[in-house]
Amino acid sequence: QVQLVESGGGSVQAGGSLSLSCTVSGYTYHRLGMAWFRQAPGKEREAIGYIDWGGRTSVNDSVKDRFTISRDNSKNTHYLQMHNLEIEDTAMYYCAARTVWTPLWYDPGRYDFWGQGTQVTVSS
After folding, report:
1. Is the dihedral of CA 106, 109, 114, 116 positive or negative?
2. Mean pLDDT of 26-49
3. C-alpha angle with apex 41: 5 to 113, nearest 5 degrees?
4. Which of 92, 101, 81, 95 is nearest to 24 (CA)?
5. At 113, is the pLDDT very low, low, confident or very high (cuts 50, 70, 90)?
6. Which residues on neighbouring strands pair with residue 67, listed in sequence order?
7. Residue 22 to residues 6, 26, 72, 75, 123: CA-CA distances in angstroms?
8. What is the structure's pLDDT at 8?
9. Distance, CA of 19 to CA of 81 (rounded, Å)
């Protein structure tokens, strides 16, 4: 059984930083492409970024100056580092994994496994 477990969410003031992590079990981690998505109330799920097994990343232009994605294959974990957070970043953050590569990293329908989500709340 494949499991993705996120951690690191919480509340922070605008301008602050948070780091999320997502640990995978039940699958050969280095074969997975990993991504982060977020969803705010009343909005569609939005892609934040993607990292392939070799560490190559694709990041949404709207956050690429503030968010960084990385992974540690030895720990079956990938990370989302968020800096200079804005109130608009408030959302539930999800990690996702896919087993088949496509260029459509931003399409949530392309992912096979999802974490349960972790809440990030940014206040003024």
Report:
1. positive
2. 94
3. 30
4. 95
5. very high
6. 82
7. 4, 13, 10, 10, 24
8. 95
9. 4
**Cβ distance 22 to 92 under 8 Å?**
no
Whole-Å CA distances, 90 to 8, 26, 122: 14, 30, 5
54 bridge partner residues: none
In this predicted structure, the answer to whether residue 4 has a pLDDT above a threshold of 90 is yes
101 close to 34: Cβ distance less than 8 angstroms: no
Which distant-in-sequence residues (6+ apart) come within 8 Å of 95 by Cβ?
Answer: 4, 6, 20, 22, 34, 35, 36, 37, 78, 80, 114, 115
Over residues 98-115, the mean pLDDT reads 94
The residue type of 113 is F
**In this model, does residue 50 exceed pLDDT 90?**
yes
Residue 12, classed as helix, strand or coil, is: strand
Q: First CA to last CA across the chain, in angstroms?
A: 40
User: CA nearest 41: which of 120, 123, 109?
Assistant: 120
Cβ atoms of 21 and 7 closer than 8 Å = yes
